[in-house]
Design goal:
Layout (H helix, E strand, L loop, with lengths): L1 H23 L7 E4 L5 E8 L2 E9 L30 E8 L4 E9 L4 E9 L4 E7 L6 E8 L1
InterPro entries: DUF2147
Pfam family, one: DUF2147
Organism: Lacibacter luteus
Length: 149
């Protein structure tokens, strides 16, 4: 009787462990809408081929306060892009899933300052995404925590 209970217990623990591992190791877990840490924008992350990218789908202040018209990418270093709207802008690209809830090798563009940074992301639970932008080495950078919408 004790042996049967032990077998059932071991089987249940194994099934729970495997279920947890499979849920945690999901390359597509970042797909969806994420609000940035400041609460000023929402980025839709999606798969493009075998890589992940994101675009701005919502802005707290979508219009330029000076003109009242939709915000444009006026800080981009290439003047050709100064007339493209920020809304709908692909500002993240090139991410590959590496291992256990981490996506690396990507770039992130900040339309506020017109700069592009190397970037990596990692999930912190099911609803928090740590987005780390950096120049050169990951140690020199900034992490923003995004919330799933």
């Amino acid at each position: 009787m004790k042996k049967l209970a032990y077998i059932k217990f071991t089987l249940c623990c194994t099934i729970l462990f495997l279920s947890f591992t499979l849920v945690q190791d999901n390359p597509d877990a970042i797909i969806g809408s994420w609000k940035n840490g400041e609460g000023t924008g929402i980025i839709q992350i999606y798969k493009n081929g075998d890589k992940y990218q994101g675009k701005i789908i919502w802005l707290k202040e979508p219009n330029d306060p000076e003109t009242g018209k939709p915000k444009l990418d006026k800080n981009h270093p290439d003047e050709v892009n100064h007339k493209r709207p920020v809304m709908g802008l692909v500002n993240m690209w090139g991410f590959k899933y590496t291992d256990k809830n981490e996506w690396t090798g990507g770039k992130i563009y900040d339309p506020k300052n017109g700069k592009t940074y190397s970037c990596k992301m990692s999930l912190d639970g099911a609803t928090k995404l740590k987005v780390r932008g950096y120049i050169g080495v990951s140690l020199i950078g900034r992490t923003d925590t995004w919330t799933k919408q």
